[in-house]
Fold Polysaccharide deacetylase family protein.
Amino acid sequence: MSTGRGHPLRPLTTALAAVALAATGTLALHTAPAQAATCNGYVGLTFDDGPSGNTPALLGALKQNGLRATMFNEGRYAAAYPAQVKPQVAAGMWVGNHSYTHPHLTQLGQAQIDSEISRTQQAVAASGGGTPRLFRPPYGETNATVKAVEAKYGLTEILWNVDSQDWNGASTDAIVAAAGRLTNGQVILMHDWPANTVTAIPRIAQGLAARSLCAGMISPQTGRAVPPTAA
Ligand SMILES: [Zn+2]
């Protein structure tokens, strides 16, 4: 967890947005809430356990609301549904590694852990998702052996600051409220498959915009949400 790391807010001056505002004078009326003129901070939205048949609906909701997110894919699903991975990238998402079969890694030996991670790196890359730089261990369970294998593959371990509980039957209201607790740099755990999660997306976008927070990428260097880098 990275909750303990202090990181001052960085007010970002958005020259282009200021120009647009001056030019039109009606930016607020014509700009979707998710496309706030100013980002006073960034949060990392993450969706685990895909890709699946639900992925297109999730990507559609994210795109429609101007949100980018990190998708922690399982290797077995990337291999089974390779056609679902490229659309994640095309929609502006970042693709991470969430193991191949979602085991309790801390109960496995190093060779098995290595297999889980390396096969997923290959499956994601083979399906057009690029080579992941972020790894989320299933159930958030990690230990020194897991960390050693992550390091071997150049992966940064990403847990979360806020658990939406969407995996545990959380209501749409509860998921939206969880996202409302995010502060600059923090990461929220959500999943590819719960229907309530997709339903929550527009309200999550509105809530972030109201707080001048933007959806960012998760830095492989710090594990925190940061402004998306070009391309
Ligand atoms: Zn998972």
Remarks:
- The chain has two domains: 1-37, 39-220.
- Residues 48-49, 98, 102, 138 surround zinc ion (CB under 6 Å).
- DSSP finds nine helices and ten strands in the chain.
